[in-house]
Design brief:
Length: about 150
C-alpha cells in the first residue's frame, strides 16, 4: 500500500487531511525500517551461501580432525617406543658398573699390574742370575784350565 492509497482510506473514514498525512508519514517511516519480501529472500539466499561455505569448512575441519587423529596415533607409537627405550636404558644402567664396582675392579687391576711387574722383575733377576752363573762357570773353567 502506498502513501496515496493510505491517505484516501483515512480520509474516507472522516480523518482530516493533516491527520491522514501524519499517520501516513509515521507508517511510511516505520515501513521503511521493515524489510520487504525481496530483502528477506536476499538475506535467506546469502545465508544459504554462507551455509555452503561453512559446509566446506566443516569438511576441512573433518579432514584436519582425521589428520590429528593420525598424529595422535603416531604420538602413541612414539610414546611406546620411548617407554621401550626407557626400559633398555634402565637395563644398561643395571649392567653398567657403579663406583664401588669400579673401585673393586681398579683394586684387582692394580694387583694384576703389581703382579705382572713383580713377575717381570723376577724374570729379569732370573736372567741376571743365569747369566751370572754362566759367567762364573766360564771363569771357573778358565781358571781350572790355566792352573789346573
Amino acid at each position: 500500500m502506498n502513501a496515496i492509497e493510505m491517505l484516501s482510506e483515512l480520509e474516507s473514514v472522516s480523518f482530516t487531511t493533516d491527520q491522514a498525512r501524519a499517520i501516513t508519514r509515521i507508517l511510511e517511516s516505520r515501513h521503511g525500517e521493515a524489510a520487504s519480501k525481496e530483502d528477506l529472500h536476499k538475506i535467506i539466499h546469502e545465508f544459504k551461501g554462507l551455509e555452503n561455505k561453512f559446509g566446506g569448512l566443516r569438511d576441512e575441519f573433518g579432514g584436519l580432525r582425521d589428520e590429528f587423529g593420525g598424529l595422535r596415533d603416531e604420538f602413541k607409537e612414539l610414546r611406546s617406543e620411548f617407554k621401550g627405550m626407557d626400559n633398555r636404558v634402565k637395563q644398561l644402567e643395571n649392567k653398567m658398573a657403579t663406583k664401588d664396582d669400579l673401585k673393586e675392579l681398579e683394586d684387582k687391576m692394580a694387583t694384576r699390574d703389581g703382579m705382572r711387574a713383580e713377575i717381570l722383575s723376577s724374570k729379569y733377576d732370573l736372567v741376571k742370575w743365569i747369566a751370572g752363573g754362566l759367567i762364573a762357570n766360564g771363569l771357573l773353567n778358565l781358571l781350572i784350565k790355566y792352573y789346573g
